[in-house]
Amino acid sequence: MIIVSSCLAGMKVRYNGTNKLDERIQQLVIEKKAIMACPELLGGFQTPRLPAEIKGGTGEDVLEGRAKVIDQQGNDVTNEYIQGAVQTLKIVQEQGASEVVLKENSPSCGSQFIYDGTFSGSKIPGEGVTAAFLKRHGIRVLSEQEFAKQLSDN
């Protein structure tokens, strides 16, 4: 069993009410080989919501208290992002999931890149809060691109 970002399976849960459908991932959910989770909804957000970015570092820095997640109006939403990571880990553990496929670039889900905290569209290397939290707990985290490559290699 794997856990996948809900937006990758076609759910309209992104901050702006859209999805990032990956038909292969959606098919895994249909076949009951994957379970959807949205860390941001699990953290208490609704759709739509203001976009947010990590200011002052990466998800690892947020977990260490060195950075914060700030929405576009300047509100500190760090606690909601941490809560979403905790709830996602619970699902992963309950399901005995072997890996998690998360949406790249997200302040929750990015596993290789995130936006830089300036709301300018610029990205930096790093992980979102949920990706960093899951990795801390020994969970294998992949972006949708890494997962697609894994599928094509098999």
Brief description of this entry?
This protein is α/β, with parallel strands linked by helices. It contains 6 helices and 8 strands.
Q: Which strand order does the major sheet show?
A: 2-1-5-8
Q: How many domains would you count in the coordinates? A: 1
Q: Which structural class should the secondary elements be placed in? A: alpha/beta
Share of β-strand residues: 15-25%
Number of DSSP helical runs: 6
Distance between the termini: 17 Å
- Flag low-confidence runs: none
What do these coordinates show?
With 154 residues, this protein is an alpha/beta fold. It has one domain (2-153). The chain is 34% helix and 19% strand. It is built from six helices and eight strands, in the order βαβαβαβαβββαβα. It has helices spanning 23-30, 39-42, 59-63, 78-95, 129-136, 144-153, and strands at residues 2-5, 34-37, 52-55, 68-71, 99-102, 113-115, 123-125, 140-143. The strands form three sheets. Strands 2-1-5-8 form a four-stranded parallel sheet, sandwiched between helices. Helix 4 crosses helix 5. It starts with a strand and ends with a helix. The relative contact order is 0.19. The model has no long low-confidence stretch (mean pLDDT 97).
